[in-house]
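Page header: ASSEMBLY MODEL / three components / 949 residues total.
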Amino acid sequence: MNDASGSGETREQEPEIVADFSNRHKSAMTRLLGFLQTTPSAIPLFVLVMAIIIFGILNGHRFFSPFALTLILQQVAIVGIVAVAQSLVILTAGIDLSVGAIAVMASVIMGKFSFDLGIPPELAVLCGLGSGLLFGTANGLLVAYVKLPPFIVTLGMWQIVLAANFLYSGSVVIRSEEIAQKAPILQFFGRTITFGGAVFTYGVILLLLLVLLMSYILSQTSWGRHVYAVGDDPEAAELSGVKVKATLVSVYAIGGFICALAGWALIGRLGSVSPQAGQLANIESITAVVIGGISLFGGRGSVAGTLFGALIVGVFTLGLRLLGADVQWTYLLIGALIIFAVTIDQAIRKVSL
Amino acid sequence: MTEAVLTARKLNKRYGHVVAMEDCDFDLLPGEILAIIGDNGAGKSTLIKALSGALRPDSGEIRLEGKPVTINSPIQARELGIETVYQTLALSPALSIADNMFMGRELLKPGIMGSLFRQLDKKKMQAIARDKLSELGLMTIQNISQTVETLSGGQRQGVAVARAAAFGTNVVILDEPTAALGVKESRKVLDLIKTIKEKGIPIILISHNMPHVFEVADRIHVHRLGKRLCIIDPKDYSMSDAVALMTGAMAPPDKEAA
Amino acid sequence: MKYLTTLATALLVSAGMSVAASAADTSVCLITKDATNPFFVKMKEGAEAKAKELGVELRSFAGKYDGDHETQVSAIETCIAAGAGGILLVATDSKAITGSVKKARDAGLVVIALDTPLDPMDAADMTFATDNFLAGELIGQWAAKTIDDPAKAKIGLININVTQPSVGVLRNQGFLTGFGIDIGDKSKWGDETDSRIVGQEIGNGNAEGGRKGMENLLAIDPDINVVYTINEPTAAGAYEALKAFGKQNDAIIVSVDGGCPGVANVGAGIIGATAQQYPLDMAGKGVEAIVKAVKTGEMPAATEGKDFYDTGVGLVTDKPVKGLKQLTVEEGKNLCWG
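Prediction written out in full:
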């Protein structure tokens, strides 16, 4: 029994161990799962690399070219940006079904404000971004203060925003040519820079920058720690002094803003303002997030994983297409990957002493 | 008598028709371990929540070192130097020990990285966390970055108590700290409690476990029917006396709580 | 007591409704694939205008998206229950909807298929449509005459849905026939063996699908020089992909629709030629035909030599070729919709 250490002298005898935190012998599997606990994006990265290698071998130079690989980046860029927003929400154990609708609505606002209201396109872009912030905040307030389940809130918001989108736009497409002439800034993220055979759109660069920025914020700032805490155990977080409600609202608000950015990038990709676009963005973003190792139960995962998840879907899609396989095979394999990813998540959660 | 560190007078709280606290008084003397005992439904949790900021009383006054204070949230309680270890521990399982120690009061890096980029000073937080755990006799941790969910019940209790002791400059409140633990781990926690007392911080201990209460408490606050019944000295009463007072089988002593 | 009141109210209301229904004229139902494709938006406008002119009530229904078959099934059932005189239907699944159409016809409603013929075509009382095969043929012929060496062409096709609805099959097979490629089975695409075909993609009829489809085709063969697209939004998306890879001048895009944005794109050189169709006409004449059939019992007749009523098609291009009747972009603009 340890005597009261009133004096400052060092004890020669072994101090009684009150709580031992040393690593005891663990099986290889437990150690692997433990590693994955701290680096959940390791598995999607591994799957991504393997997929690139396998499809590269099967497809040859057509797949392994800078052209094809950067094409994949372009094809997943919009969904990837939306998935960054979705990652934030899912980290808080929420879910956002309205992401695609918010993105499309933002693009329609940017287009219509420029052309119908005649305001300077730069201002129209800001209005579009502001609309994303607005809808996101509405989601957040309903989830945090009215305490409605996120699934229900965003389900309703999805319908509301999508219908508003069609009502406001009248389903009319604003043509690429007109935009190029009168409001080229709307197509900003469609511009490209080329190195050899590799083509990068500004949209791809936006995605990569967002992932880097969010990674930093989530791991290196207190707000980021709070996001994880809120997702992991909101009551514990509240009692620990985290402003849970404010954190939730900010997560959904920032998510909405990022979706609006995706809407802006969408105009760049399509050239035109198309109210019919982005219909599947909510499902596709959730797919990327889950495959990327972020737990639907909150508190675990990294945004880098989401990027890998989005790329995995893109690699599978293009790789199988080049092989001439029926597009249904892509859906089948992605479905299997989703289940695989969630199974791994459950196994990680069970790891304990 | 010595000036009380924390007092409460005439606290009231109702939930609809249910009276949780009725004209409840409370006193905590400096440097003591005060145990609060009471039957289920007596209102101990309500009193503690009022003191820790998890709940706002309908009326009444709380004073810290003689000055009236309002404690509207857990954060405010912490700012006043009152730290609580809840029965649920309030730890985030998926986050690391260091993350949990500093949750809600993270340290930023000095200079521009901290002020402009809001970057966390993780090394410093980990170092301080390691120190605080060692100070309490908890073995130096191999990996302070391991997640709380990989720890056993006793280890988690240790982290929660270390957190409270690290930041609790005025009062540390422990709500049923040994309830979920086995004999050996309870022993460790009781030693922890004594170590905190040695640092001079007064402790409020809520417990159902009479042997533990009688081992560490300097005074025992008996809570009954939404208010303080009396305060007894464990040296003057037996455990069965305490239980009898709690359940109403025994009448309280006439003398006022000193 | 409460039950009796409710019962009495219900009886009164339905009595009142049936009186009102017979007092008003026939009602016509319009069921489109979705409510957001400008083509169907225009169709609805045309139908509403004609219905107002004739003093009949028009009820509109639409699937939630192109491919939403269930909503069309329940719309038909609603129209039967509401005692409509007839249904104008743009079928999203031209094979699967025939069961519901038969129920409607058995109940005495006149069913006219618009734009997309049912499969088999006589499942409807009459079909008012563009000759989609001819539309495809025209642009196929134009493409073959425009590029330098049709024998060495590299052709990419971006179709509509994976279910291969009739409108998609007809235009696709028409295009290939017009270009001079053996189509094998006329009832579906994908079975062709001509090596000039680089690939067939699914674009779901919108710009996103057009862009992605074009990108996939370019990944298979970057030297594609002829691109067939099911409609003009698809063509717009495909053009963006070509532009992103600097190939907008290396390939010609052909399309079908003749909407005003599409015709403008022809003028801008984005689309080489487009086959223009007339949805306002289609819908307006469809409403007329149903009202006439209900009043006089006379069913609408097919166009001479065809088994459907041809609402006409025009080839709009800025680069006319010999041997085809073509409309200039200006003329196209006068007739365009949307």
